[in-house]
Amino acid sequence: MIWIGLAIVVVTFYLIYKNYEARLVLALSGLVMAFIGQVVVGTNGGVSAAVDAFVKQLVNGGLVPTIVTVMGFGYVMTFTKCSDHLVNLLVKPLARVPVIVIPGAVIITWLLNIVLPSAAGIAAAVGVLLIPALIALKVRPVMAAAAVFIGTWGSVVSPGLMFNPQIADIAFKAKEIPAPDAMIVIMQEALPCAIGALVAAICLTIICIVLKEGVGSTEIVKELPEGEEIQKDFKVNPIKAIIPIIPLALLVLASKQVGVLPTKAFSVPVCMLIGTAIGLIVALVNKQKIGDASKKFCRGAGDGFCDVVILIAAAAMFASGMKAIGLTGALVDAMKGSQSVAMFAAAAGPFVMAAISGSGNAAALAFNQAITPNAADFGLTIVQLGAVAQIAAGLGRSMSPVAGGVIILAGIAGVNPMEVVKRTAIPAIVALIVVTLLMFAMS
């Protein structure tokens, strides 16, 4: 049965790699394994347990409100153009200091991705401004695209990313942390990830110097498609630029580590709704219809449920199927003998899957559902193991030639996506090693 389970898992991730609908593939694979486990192995409640696992995630009080409010808030920020003001505020000064344009582009993209936690979305928002600016400084287009792309994993420390509330929920149920608060997870990830982002920026800068693709490296200035020119006349409104980071600032101030604001009063949904309310005021000032802004919030919340919550639920069904067929128990037993095996699996599995498929979400979700709850058996914490899995997925995506973000950026720069990832691969791998070591070194 274990070999049959492994075969089903391999087929599952192959189908996801071939761009079949991930939610459907995970759910069906989970049901098949649960059915085999119930009929052949005699597992009690195999199929019904898998369905229950699916339904529980749909009504998970720790996950669902967080995800839908973050997505809704993001849609309102886009509608009111507040996100445009924030991007312009951070991006435009780079052109004035040529020596830092490459590492600066990486760090700015990484930071913005925390506030706007969509890799493809931030690639489009930052790329359309930053790539023309870098090309105008005679940076080679492929390096300009690479500088933005390697920064598109900043969302790993965002409260809006699906994994952080998921890990917090698992850790809370295991009584590892006092509350199902994503900020507890983020605070443990923040420093290792920030160091990893800096390491990635330095690595890419070295590659840029070696390949001679930095400022002034080419006399050919690429003509950009209409609508993709740098917005030289864009006037940044500082107030609008600050609004997208207000919820994040409130969450930091209300975290247990900072404690300026009461933690219970400022949960992720509360902070996102505060930001949304401010966004509605901005819509009124912009003479936009407040009803349209409200519809954008609802659309974002709906997309969050559709794209994220149901994916988490499907991964839970998949994990339940693995447990029913006996695969989870076998994997845990195999890892119990070596802490290093568990550490390697958490980093390598989601990283490779993300690099191959362009999205490590399915792999990281399945790992966190099936293996992460058993972290104590390997001498690790749930936060350590789960965080490394999701960080690895984010970094793996930043060197995938089929990721949505690199396709967008390559299109803006007019280059081949494979040439871009040739430059981001080493920084991503080095950053993964650094972050993984730092996460597991934490007591």
UniProtKB/TrEMBL annotation:
Assigned keywords, A-Z: Cell membrane, Membrane, Transmembrane, Transmembrane helix, Transport
GO annotation, cellular component aspect: plasma membrane
Segments traversing the membrane: 24-43, 63-82, 94-112, 118-137, 144-163, 183-211, 241-260, 266-285, 305-332, 344-367, 399-418, 425-442
Major subcellular site: membrane
One Pfam family here: DcuC
Subcellular location, record wording: Cell membrane
Family: Belongs to the DcuC/DcuD transporter (TC 2.A.61) family.
UniProt-recorded name of the protein: Transporter, anaerobic C4-dicarboxylate uptake C family
Species assigned in the record: Parasutterella excrementihominis YIT 11859
